[in-house]
Amino acid sequence: MAIIKKNKINWNKVRPSWDVYFMLQAEIAKLRSNCITRQIGSVIVKENRQIATGYNGTPPGIKNCIDGGCNRCQARMNGELSSGGSLERCLCTHAEANAIMQCALFGNGTSTSGTTLYSTFSPCLECSKMCITVGIKRIVVINDYTEDSYKILEEANINIDKLKKEELLQWLDFI
Fold first, then answer.
1. 96 catalytic per annotation
2. What is the C-alpha separation between 115 and 133, in angstroms, rounded?
3. Catalytic pick from 96, 126, 155, 166?
4. pTM
5. Which long-range contacts (CB under 8 A, 24 or more apart) does 64-69 make?
6. CA-to-CA distance for 94 and 147, rounded, in angstroms?
7. Distance CA 72, CA 66 (A)
8. What is the pLDDT of residues 104-149, one digit of tens each?
């Protein structure tokens, strides 16, 4: 790959890979998160076309987490819970689940079978089960979640790839 110099790029020779491109989209999606403890973004892609995005936060019509809507997240911020503790009490919908539900909600005319999920964190166990059920075949992440679900994903023959943050950082000066 050619060396990129700030604000000077030969667009005929250098473009981000598809993985970097879609992970940058997931990074942008996480900016909409209303969770006070962690912001996560996801993108579902089929044949190099983005079909859904998701971010974590409270469901529509529920008071935003950042406004005190989720008691579990508030307890975590107060040091009363550790990361990954009492997840069943969290009101926030995870980014991966949100993206999967967007496909169903909007009936985007395509199937999630054979798709790739890009997520800024590896999916939790519940989201991993959803990915398996809807036929996602590949997951690309940049961070590991506290609840590692790689074993079940590997058992379901889902390919898991991890990008290095440095692969994304070189593009941030151009957006």
1. yes
2. 12
3. 96
4. 0.87
5. 64/34, 65/34, 65/35, 65/36, 65/37, 65/91, 65/92, 66/34, 66/35, 66/36, 67/34, 69/34
6. 13
7. 12
8. 888 765 788 899 999 999 999 999 999 999 999 999 999 887 777 8
